[in-house]
Amino acid sequence: VAGLGNYGMRGTRHSVGMAVLDRLARQLAVAEGWRVDRRCCADVAMATAHGLELVLLKPRRFMNLNGLSVASAAEIYSLGPEDIYLVHDDLDKALGKVAIKLGGSARGHNGVQSCISALHSNEMTRLRVGIGRP
């Protein structure tokens, strides 16, 4: 589960993917388990939920380069695009509204496009979190 955003810019609308991962880590009682993984240039925490092993990932790169971290982590943890969930902001959704989407285009989202390019696939599941228009 990769929370897309601009690392170091907490609290901004475009980093809502990382905020969702912080919340998920707290709910799964692994919030203290974040560690820097230099191999994929990301903060990583391991968790278990409903019998599934999860890799929580917050790339330490700008949004338009998040895919490099996601692709590196996919290789390190032997994950295919179909195993990856991207959590990211969506300008076209009202603030706080969420939608799940399987595959498809990036719809102009630079972080998603970076992931599609780096993984050579668009088969990731996306949790789109509405941030509304300014």
From TrEMBL:
InterPro entries: Pept_tRNA_hydro, Pept_tRNA_hydro_sf. CDD domains: PTH. Keywords: Hydrolase, RNA-binding, tRNA-binding. One of its GO terms (molecular function) is peptidyl-tRNA hydrolase activity. The keyword Mitochondrion does not apply. The keyword Hydrolase applies. PANTHER family: PEPTIDYL-TRNA HYDROLASE. NCBIfam families: pth (TIGR00447). This is PTH hydrolase. It comes from Grallaria varia (variegated antpitta).
